[in-house]
Amino acid sequence: ATSRAAHNDGSSGNNNNNNNIDSSMQQKMKKHSQLKKKKKQKNRHQRRRAVSSPEPLPSPALPARELCEMLESLADVSMYVGVPDSLLKSFCSFVQRQRPEQHLIAANEGAAVGVAAGFHLATGRHVAVFMQNSGLGNALNPLLSLVHADVYAIPMLLVIGWRGQYGDDAPQHNVQGRATPGLLEEMEIPYFVLPRNPVAARRIMEKIHQYWQRKPGPVAVLVSKGVLASDDTEEEQEQQEQHQEEQQRQEDSSDEEDDEEEEEDEEEDDEHNSKKKKKKKKNPANATEYSLTRHEALTEILRFTTEQFGAPSPSRSPMLVSDDEGDNDDGDSEAKTPVVNQSDAVDTSTATSTTQAETEHAESRLRCVMVATTGFTSRELFQLREGAHQSHVRDFLNVGAMGHCSALALGVALAQPQCQVWAFDGDGAMLMHMGTLGTIGVVQPVNLVHVVFNNGAHESVGGQPTGAYGMELGHIASACGYRSVFSASSLSELQLVLGRLEFTRGPLFVECRIRQGTLPELGRPTQPLRVMKRQFMSSIRSFALQMQLRDRLREQQIDADDVQQQGEDEEDEEEDEEEQGQ
Question: Residues 286, 466: contact at Cβ < 8 Å?
């Protein structure tokens, strides 16, 4: 009985100790949660105070010119792309006037992020993406799934007009103004509020550049109401008016030339339309009626643009195509002319010599880079390269940011005009952000080829219909300003189209009508995304350096030839003078 009582006393003592430990742990956890709650309330209170009450404005407003100089000198910004905002009016106007070649207005904020990403991939330089804070919703997808520090880690500066910051704006802007800092925090995008003091603003730009060296990714600068000054002087306004007048004269002269070309094109279109009336184009209800698949089209394009896939056959050249070649698999007579509109194709009758054409074609194959949209397209491109034992250094896989493949390709094409940029897009992705087609039509990049694989479905997520089979995507691209538009629904038609692309200036649009289906055991890219990004960037830069070196050597050769010719001319003149003297 005594031992049992002692045992009971010991067990009760252990229970008391355990209870004490549990109670102390609960107290610590409760204290920790209280501290965390107080900290959160403090941060929320500071944020509300910063949003609800405007800061004092002792210093004059910051000139837009000075802000641009800071961005370029301290943050290494070399391009400005985005959607204008009223709070950024002076900034956007200054960039449009003083940096016209470095300025681009995108169709939406997400497309602006895509263009900025492509420009950085091609040059390694930074881009300032300007927008209103209400445009963060449009930019959310590419910011998180493409340029985020944990995805491709592409640095860019978001210059955001902070509408509704003080709660004295329209209701929709007030809601957006309260949510803006929290949205950036949730997206893990560091942000700074731009001060009016130039010295403080310079410190912020230096901090941003230092941050990019540690962790590349997007960084935001919030611009409050009244921070930027209007620097429109009378002299700049006069220069702007002169520039507009000169631009109007150039447009008038080009319109006269275009009118003459349009009269010729209308005659060809009338003949083409009369043929179409006789035999309407097929518009099948499902993809099984088309013989071409996506991986077959990709293989043919890679064979055309890549040395390792084999040189293209001579029959693809329009100079060697006869009326009997290029029959459609279904016996359709229209397969001989798969071109929908080719108004500015190069006249092959006045083409250069065959040797020069072969040299240019070899160089064009070396300078091709690919930008593939998300889903099966990028995965098939990766697997086709693996199957051919090829490197992926010329491919950029847009694993996220659906719909912004064309914007990415546009950024690369603008930054590296000596490269031929192929954008592999899908019908659903193209329809999602069709405004970029209009931007491409305005900018007119001659080195861009936009290929849309139209299978009429969102195949990678279940095959739900997109409705694209009932649309004339080529006509849409032509109306948006693409220089030439092509269409193909079989392998023979695609071969004909590829042969004609070699002699046609961009921007080009190619619609490949395909059936659903993909490669067996299709996997995902096995290489790390950041490694693929670095390889793509170094590949473009090395080719750009090679082209610069080639151009310099050609210039030196031309200079040497000029010196030699000048010497021969001087000798001839001396001989003529001697003959005249005799």
Answer: no
Q: For residue 185, give the nearest of 32, 43, 36 by alpha carbon.
A: 43
Phi-psi region of 525 (alpha: psi -120 to 50; beta: other; left: phi over 0): beta
Distances in whole angstroms, Cα of residue 465 to Cα of each of 205, 293, 380, 454, 561: 47, 17, 21, 11, 62
Rounded to 10 degrees, the C-alpha dihedral 447/146/305/419 comes to 30
Structure tokens at 449: 């080829």
Rounded to whole angstroms, the Cα distance separating 103 from 15 reads 74
Q: What is the dihedral of CA 484, 403, 536, 299, to 10 degrees?
A: -60
Give, in order, the Cα–Cα distances in Å from 30 to each of 25, 40, 116: 8, 15, 47
Strands (E), 391-483: 395-397, 420-426, 448-454, 457-458, 464-465
Whole-number Å distance between alpha carbons of 555 and 292: 46
CA distance 313 to 324: 17
Contact by Cβ (8 Å): 65, 71: no
User: How is residue 234 written in tokens?
Assistant: 């009378």
Per-residue b or e along 50-60, where b marks 16 or more CB atoms closer than 10 Å to that residue's CB? ebeeeeeeeee
Structure tokens at 188: 């893990």
CB 219 within 8 A of CB 207: no
- Residue 127 tokens, joined: 């881009």
Query: Mean pLDDT for each consecutive 10-residue tract of the chain (582 residues)?
Result: 54 58 71 70 54 54 91 92 91 90 91 95 94 92 93 95 90 91 94 92 93 93 90 53 66 62 58 49 55 90 68 32 36 40 39 47 66 91 88 88 91 90 92 92 94 89 84 93 93 91 88 89 86 89 79 73 67 74 74
Q: State the first-to-last Cα distance of the chain, in angstroms, to the nearest integer.
A: 151
User: How far from 492 is each of 289, 297, 482, 496, 498, CA to CA, in Å?
Assistant: 16, 10, 24, 6, 10
Pair 137, 434: CB distance under 8 Å: no
* 3-class secondary-structure state, position 104: strand
Alpha helix segments (H runs only) across 416-447: 427-432, 435-443
Specify whether the CB–CB gap between 318 and 504 falls below 8 A. no
The β-bridge partners of 221 are 159, 192
Sheet holding 508-513, edge to edge: 339-342, 484-488, 508-513, 448-454, 420-426, 368-372, 395-397
Q: What are phi and psi of 89, to 5 degrees?
A: -60, -50
Cβ atoms of 225 and 174 within 8 Å: the answer is: no
Q: Which residues contact 104 (CB under 8 A, 6 or more apart)?
A: 79, 80, 81, 115, 414, 439, 443
Q: Tokens 């941050």: give the residue.
A: 211
In this prediction the pTM is 0.70
Report how far residue 43's alpha carbon sits from residue 54's, in angstroms, rounded to the nearest whole number. 17
